[in-house]
Amino acid sequence: MNSKKYTISKKAKELGFQLIGYTNPIIKQSDKKRYKVFLNKNFHGEMNWLNKQYELKSKPKKLWKDVKTILILGINYAPKENPKILDYEKNKANISVYARNKDYHTVIKKKLIILQKYLDEKFSIKSKCFVDSSPVFEKALAQYAGLGWIGKHTNLVSKKIGSWFFLSELFLSEKIDADNPEINNCGNCTSCIESCPTQAFDSEYNLDARKCISYLTIEHKGVFPMSLRKKIGNKIYGCDDCLSVCPWNKFSEITSEKEFFAKKTLINPELKKFLVLKECNFNFFFQKSPIKRIGWVRFMRNVIIATGNSQNKDLVAYLIKFLDSEYPILRGACIWSLKQLIAIKDFNYLKKKFVSKERNSYVKFEWEHN
Predict the structure, then answer these.
(1) What ranges in the chain are assigned the alpha helix state H?
(2) 172-194: per-residue pLDDT in tens?
(3) What are phi and psi of 169, to 5 degrees?
(4) Active site residue 177
(5) What is the average pLDDT across 99-120?
């Protein structure tokens, strides 16, 4: 490693990045082809930007014409305990590990800005930074740079720290020697595929996002398919199951980044706590959190479905109020969830009371088909 590369990497480590690698701004044809197959099968669902951004993703120089090297950085966010155990606590709201504190985009961006300033002042290297919000082919680039390999669950896996880490990139204006790519080390293991509650993997290395709980609870704006509602379980924002079972996580260590420590209010919270969360209080409660971006309506849709899976009849009183919600999607979710928790005679009583005044065709469908 030359002195400049060593110095830059040392600074990145000081800022808290555990994984550091360099690669050329070129995407392999095999990766472009695999991505195109993903799009052609419509596995991206409602994430239309993935299709629109194909050209930019596959040609980094179109994103920034001056890029000569891409610096890939990984930062650990591993939890204290395996979140898989929460799957069995039906009265608890299961929130993906990465979303239990401050938005990682903000946390990492601050570090990248410091690194950018350092590169400019010390080496006159100009740069552009990206944190999972721009069309960067980051997992493929990370494998080229030796940070890890794309596992069968389509996430990156590292021999050093497992799979609990965020990626970010600095496009650099100067040529720096590329690192050696990492090889695939999944072997015959299929634990991640077998662990998926909704069988979202079309095959190894191929995820149908439309069935993925992370996609459904975060990106999907509409109604959950009836066939997947029970499989969502108690998950109200994201899903970590395929990461949780990866054997390479035996090498992970609890994150040292304080802003990634779970907030007390988001450690195993009761579903009841969110059933009473009012729309006017949502933004304040989730300020600086990635959960804020999905808004109260989508969040409550998730909570209501999880409540239907709780087997807790004590939550019925909290659910019923949503039958009068101004939002059809919440009324519909509530109907399904109530059907899971109350006796048929009680459900039919509510149906008789509410269906006659219902004007929304979707909500009527929920009444008639539950």
Answers:
(1) 3-14, 29-40, 49-52, 54-58, 60-63, 104-123, 138-144, 191-195, 213-214, 226-232, 241-244, 271-275, 279-285, 295-308, 316-320, 328-341, 344-354, 361-368
(2) 999 999 999 999 999 999 999 99
(3) -140, 150
(4) no
(5) 97
Select from 233, 155, 241, 236 the least CA-distant residue to 195: 241
Per-residue pLDDT tens digits for 315-336: 999 999 999 999 999 999 999 9
State both tokens at 137.
Answer: 């082919």
* Helix (H) / strand (E) containing 45: none
Residue 342 DSSP one-character state? S
- Compute how many other C-beta atoms are within 10 angstroms of the C-beta atom of residue 252: 21
Q: What's the one-letter identity of residue 316? A: V
Mean pLDDT of the chain: 96
3-class secondary-structure state, position 178: coil
How far is 345 from 221, CA to CA, in rounded Å?
A: 32
For the stretch 212-241, pLDDT in tens is 999 999 999 999 999 999 999 999 999 999
> What angle in degrees, to the nearest 10, is found between the helix axes of 361-368 and 328-341?
10
DSSP state of 158: B
Q: What percent of the chain has pLDDT over 90?
A: 96
SS3 23: strand
CA distance 96 to 249: 16
Cα within 13 Å of Cα(134), Cβ side: 18
CB 11 within 8 A of CB 118: yes
Structure tokens at 300: 């409550």
What is the pLDDT confidence band of residue 284, given thresholds at 50, 70 and 90? very high
pLDDT at res. 339: 97
Q: What is the C-alpha to C-alpha distance for residues 196 and 214, in angstroms, rounded to an integer?
A: 11
Instruction: Look at residue 1 in the predicted model and tell me its pLDDT.
Output: 65
Instruction: Output phi, psi for 365, to 5 deg.
Output: -60, -40
- The closest alpha carbon to 189, from 216, 215, 163, 228, belongs to 163
Query: Which of 66, 120, 132, 177 is labelled catalytic?
Result: 132
Alpha carbon of residue 229 to chain centroid? 19
Residue 28 DSSP label: -
